Amino acid sequence: MHTNYPDADRQTVFQEGLEFQDFVANLLLKEMGIVISNYSSKYYQQTYGENAQGFEIKLDRQILETGHVSIEVAEKSKAINKSFVPSGIMREDNSWLYIQGNKKIIFIFGKKTLRQLYQAKYKDKVWQPKSTIKTFRLPIAEARKYALKVFENEHYGRIKGGKIVRFGCTNCGFIFDASEPEVISNTVICPKCDSNACNEFEEYKEFKERWEEVRRWEEEEARKYLKK
User: 196, 215 in Cβ contact below 8 A?
Assistant: First the structure.
């Protein structure tokens, strides 16, 4: 768990970060059936990562105000230290998904995708929001383009108007048509798994393609690891 905004009272920052971490864990469980097993000890956090699933979670409370997502790439423990060390998306740990946002908007990125973006477009545009952190600023429009999934307010999957709309469930993969928003309280529920993790079909296809690309990469990395 990390936070990404200017200096504030350390205890307040820490507590807000923990609360956001729990918020994300609850959201993923409710919307996608994903259970996060967080590591509590410093040893496991430093040796392996934030949790057993490899999800890095970062609070960035000013996304909507600034119009960008501030992606961390380096840090140092004290401002007086001369050198920065890789952190955030550049940290070598078990994380492969990078979840950043606040209670109004949350982006889920493939960590590999963010690294590729950084190397290709933002390596020479790094800035320091505070003396101990280096980040690059990813515009919201670009963040939407490259994110595997975006949660806004409650979730995606709302019916527009009274027409029939095709949906895909990102929880179980079932594809179905939905209608009569007044009957289902304007929220799409998957008829197969009873989940509300449903996107309109074009968004669903794009999500599936990106998710599968990341999963293929993860499987390739796992095979390399298992051969060692």
Answer: no
The whole-angstrom separation of Cα 103 and Cα 22 is 11
- Write out pLDDT tens, residues 49-90: 888 899 999 999 889 888 899 999 999 988 888 889 999 999
CB neighbours of residue 13 within 10 Å:
16
Please write down the HEC assignment for all residues of 111-125. HHHHHHHHHHHHCCC
Instruction: Tell me the per-residue pLDDT of 140-173, one tens digit each, with 9 for 90 and over.
Output: 888 988 888 888 864 433 334 445 678 888 888 8
On whether the CB atoms of residues 109 and 211 are closer than 8 A, the answer is no
- Alpha-carbon span 6 to 15, nearest angstrom: 15
The domain ranges of the chain are 2-150, 156-227
pTM above threshold 0.70: no
Rounded Cα distance between 226 and 141, Å, is 38
Kind and range of the H or E run holding 151: strand 149-152
CB count in 10 Å sphere of residue 153: 9
Contact predicate 117/69, CB 8 Å: no
Please tell me the distance from the alpha carbon of residue 24 to that of residue 108, in angstroms, as a whole number: 11
